Amino acid sequence: MALADFLASLDALAQQARDAFATANSADALEAARIEFLGAKSGHLRQVQKGLGSVEKSDKPAAGKRFNEIKGLMEQAFETAQERLAGRVRESASEPFDVTLPGQTVRVGHLHPITQTIREMKDIMGRLGFTAVEGPEIEDDWHNFEALNIPLSHPARDPLDNFYLATAEKGCQDEKPLLLRSQTSTVQIRVMEKTAPPVRIISLGRVYRPDTADATHYPMFHQIEGLLIDRGVTMADLKSVLRLFCQSYFGGDDQVHVRFRPSFFPFTEPSVEVDMNWQGGWMEMGGAGMVDPNVLRAVGYDPEEVTGFAFGLGVERICMRQHGITDIRALYQNDVRFLSQF
Ligand code: DAH
């Protein structure tokens, strides 16, 4: 390339860049112009620089010198524009503020519906005198099964129904591996092992079962577990507490009904399924019953001295019923359009 052509293209570019920088009226526009002209990879200046290679060898020093000068000028024009825009910001800050302008809405996040439900449940049960406690999500055989009167041969231990953990480490007996807890009843044992009666606790948390996700199942869900141990506790106490709980949660004294259906759980005797009716239609809430003497003995309590009741209810079900949610998966898809409704 002839030196004259190279210099002409440099001059033209400098002029264009100066115009672009001088007319940019926002920081974004200025940045766009900077990238267009001074961008390190494919800015115009970089393109022109490539032409330097094809200038006659004897002309190179002159071409290079001019190139550097033009580059400096363009950078200077950019900085000037930057200062001009910064000055404008300062200027506008001192302009009178129009308090009648509509405000800018800030979108504030909020708690997940399940978290809201859990907090509300803790609150209600707290007023009934129950303390909230927590237990680990990774459990051992003793707390998830054995102490809960679930013998080795029981189908509830089936590997198809539990998330057993691969415990390859030495010293860990293979027949009693750890698992992701399948129920919050584990916490009953943990509490009773450490506390002398009376006991009055609830525990809320995640449980895991290898179910295929559909509208009503999810491999992870939450339970609220309750346990009351004292002298002379009866089924009537259980039903009163559950009715008060449901009525407080759904907020209609006469419109919430609780019913028991006979059932079986290894850790309670007798055992019941708990159903609730609110705005028509019965809904299964979970299981309950009087704590089995075997369980009391497993934690060192004397079943002749104390009795107690326990219950375990599905948190998702209750939350879904309250809000009219029909698919449990919606709770865990993290779709803001769904979540922002609660
Ligand atoms: N653990 C049972 C389950 O996951 C629910 C349950 C039933 C909990 C009876 C209890 C109970 O505390 O007494 O299905």
CATH architecture assignment of the largest domain: 2-Layer Sandwich
Spell out which ligands are present: 3,4-dihydroxyphenylalanine
CATH class of the largest domain: Alpha Beta
Tell me the CATH topology of the largest domain.
BirA Bifunctional Protein, domain 2
Beta content: 15-25%
Instruction: Give average pLDDT, whole number.
Output: 91
Globular, elongated, flat, extended or rod-shaped: what is the shape? elongated
Overall tally of domains: 2
Biggest sheet overview: 7 strands, mixed
**Spatial order of the strands forming the largest sheet:** 1-5-6-10-9-8-7
Helix content: 40-55%
- Under CATH, the homologous superfamily of the largest domain reads Bira Bifunctional Protein, Domain 2
| Quaternary assembly | single chain
Report low-confidence residues grouped into runs of 5 or more.
none
Specify the structural class.
Answer: alpha+beta
Q: How many helix segments?
A: 11
Walk me through this protein's architecture.
With 342 residues, the chain is α+β, with helices and mostly antiparallel strands. The chain has two domains: 3-93, no CATH class; 113-339, 2-Layer Sandwich (BirA Bifunctional Protein, domain 2). The chain is 41% helix and 20% strand. It is built from eleven helices and ten strands. It has helices spanning 3-23, 27-38, 44-51, 60-93, 113-127, 141-144, 185-194, 235-250, 293-298, 315-323, 336-339, and strands at 131-133, 138-139, 163-164, 179-180, 199-208, 220-230, 256-265, 268-278, 282-291, 307-314. A seven-stranded mixed sheet has the order 1-5-6-10-9-8-7, sandwiched between helices. A three-stranded antiparallel sheet has the order 2-4-3. Helix 1 (3-23) packs antiparallel against helix 2 (27-38) and helix 1 packs parallel to helix 4 (60-93). The longest helix is centred in the N-terminal third of the chain and has 34 residues, at 60-93. The protein is elongated and about 110 Å long. The model has no long low-confidence stretch (mean pLDDT 91). It binds 3,4-dihydroxyphenylalanine (DAH). 3,4-dihydroxyphenylalanine (DAH) binds at residues 183, 185, 225, 265, 268, 286-289, 310-312.
